[in-house]
Amino acid sequence: MSGKRFGFGASVIAIGLVGALGGAGLSGFVAAQGKPESLLPPGFDDPAPAPTPRQNPAPGQRPPVASAPGAPLPPPGAAPVPGAPVDPSALPQLPPITRDDLARLPSLEKLENMSTEELDALLGLKPKSDIPPGAQRALTRVGVLAVDEGGLPPMALANQSDKLVRAVLAGTNGPMVSRWGHILMRRALASRLAAPLGMDPIEFAALRVGVLNRMGEFAIARAVVQDIDTANWSPALTQEALNAYLASGDITGACPAVRLQGSQREDGEWQMWQAICNAYAGESALAATQLDRALFRGVAPRVDVLLARRFAGAAGRGQRGVNVEWNGVTDLNHWRFGLASALGEPLPDGLLDAAMKDRGGAYYARSAALLPMLPAAARAPFSGRAAREGILSADAMVDLYAEVYADPAAKGDPQTHAAALREAYLATDPAARIAAMQRLWADGAKLGGGDGYGARVLTAYAAARIPASEAHADAAGDLIAAMLAAGLDRNAGRWSNLVEEGSLGWALITLSAGSGNAVSQGAVESFMGDDNSEGSRKSAFLVAGLAGIGRLDQGDASSLAGDLDFDLARQTRWTAAISRAAEVGNPALVVFLAGLGMQGSSWKQMTPLHLYHITSALTRVGMVAEARMIAAEAVARG
Predict the structure, then answer these.
(1) 256: number of Cβ within 10 Å
(2) pTM metric for this prediction
């Protein structure tokens, strides 16, 4: 058998042969050379003798103990001497195993259903945090918006009593009537803030994230919870985080917290989420077993488990065909909407429309307007609501309808509105551009319902492109209202010399201008004479807004308010609280209280007294720009 067959080279075989010949054949060769001279210092070329190899004891024979004959045993409790015999009686006693210890052990069924991380936790092998100690984040300030990015001062609430802040945030349960109020509240909730005095930072974060979720700001809510290490999440913060992840379509984004917390919850939704996260962690078989068991035991409605099965089956290679059965499903919930949207699973006809009509149906509109997996034409019908509430910006609206226009499959109202918006930007004649905007304003109900303010947001930049001229003075009020929907106050100010005193355009420019003289009582009375809004609401808001930002004399304001049947001097617990917050210069508390006072679905729910105190408090704490935008919006939408 040759060496080549086993891959040995010729040189290796040669070396073996030389070794086999021994010194007899090489003695002459060695003698022919002189003795090599060592280059090392003395002592380095004389290595120590190798130790004698240790002989393994024969089977059944105990190894010898290297100790002196008759060496005494160490006293009980003393450290053993190396090599000395060990006295079994000196070893500490193990605690006895009781029945309670045995009862706490999980059953075989639970052990089979445990993920790898849960088994690690049971055996004490799982760390308390999934982030290394050096990378863990402090809780001194929580949020995503720093001061230089527009956030509020971080220590604004540090010395504020926790009871008031807790009551204000817990009491903010709905959307704001004001688009600019919503934007201001979102900015405050996302700021990097220290917790109030006596409040746990995690509780403060959970309260803020809860308000963001109720406002429809799911992406911002998700960003805030991601600023906190998942090991520090409380049950309340975990639930708000799950709400944010589900509404934003980021199902697997919650998996770090779900897998870290393990079996801390046992409700059906949590079990389905655990199975999904196990599947995407590479434990597909375990996930399938968990979902099969959930379906068999009925821990959640059948369609919910099937959606979870379908989502989990997309992980890895262990895919199983799942047919989602909608038969008999007559209502929609957050889980079904979120999973179906993430999967691209079409909802049965009429199911979403029926849910939109129910109480709480606005949730689906706010979520659908932002879901990235939906095509632009599917998001467009919900975008108007998101725009008028402050969730979507004017830039985002234009980008969305540009996608609709470029989509050859788009049809119906979204495509019609996209074509009208293009004409509002690109028509050669300004009159044609204004006519295109007027069609969108008239069709505002289809762009998001409500008062159609979403169409104003959509056309804000198109309105700013219209040159200020006498020829278009008749449309000035509507154009200015559209510009101010996006905060384009300087563009609106170009019309100041063309609008007539007492007109809508004059009122909006007077409220929104960065600087200006005091307004006379006569000018306001001329506006009141032409006001045809219900209950002269626009006039009341104009008086309250001008008084709040300091452009109307208090005496004149009180007199005009009396003519309009409201009293600016009336006090409530809320007015006292926001006035006190402004007095001590606390912008964060002022914003939170302003958000509490602006709750509602329509400007009909807003009172001139509330508008006056909100604009006044914001002005006193240095937020006069926000106060001006809120006041102008009130008159435009009143």
Answers:
(1) 17
(2) 0.80
- The span from the first CA to the last CA of the chain, in angstroms, equals 102
Give the HSE-up count for residue 113: Cα atoms under 13 Å, Cβ half-sphere: 18
Q: Among the three residues 458, 474, 499, which one is the final residue of a domain in this structure?
A: 499
Q: What is the DSSP letter of 153?
A: P
> Distance (Å, rounded) from C-alpha 477 to C-alpha 500?
10
Q: Which two tokens stand for residue 486?
A: 């996006």
Write down the pLDDT at residue 304.
95
Q: Are residues 546 and 626 in the same domain?
A: yes
Asked if residues 109 and 96 have their Cβ atoms less than 8 Å apart, the reply is no
Transcribe 142-169 into DSSP letters: B-SB-GGGTPPPTTTTTTSBHHHHHHHH
* 630 plus 531 within the same structural domain: yes
Lowest-confidence pick of 95-109, 464-478, 529-543: 95-109
Q: From CA 225, how far away is CA 193, in angstroms rounded?
A: 13
Residue 21 corresponds to which amino acid? Answer: L
Q: Which of 64-73, 213-222, 242-251 shows the lowest per-residue confidence on average (mean pLDDT)?
A: 64-73
> What does the block give as tokens for 638?
């009143």
Residues 485 and 430 placed together within one structural domain of the fold: yes
Q: What integer is the mean pLDDT of 482-491?
A: 96
| Same domain, yes or no: 513 and 626 | yes
3-state secondary structure of 191: strand
Assess whether 633 and 507 both reside in one domain: yes
- Residue 375: CB atoms within 10 A of its CB come to 13
Distances, alpha carbon 429 to alpha carbons 84, 240, 474, in Å: 104, 51, 16
Clarify whether residues 594 and 616 are in a common domain: yes
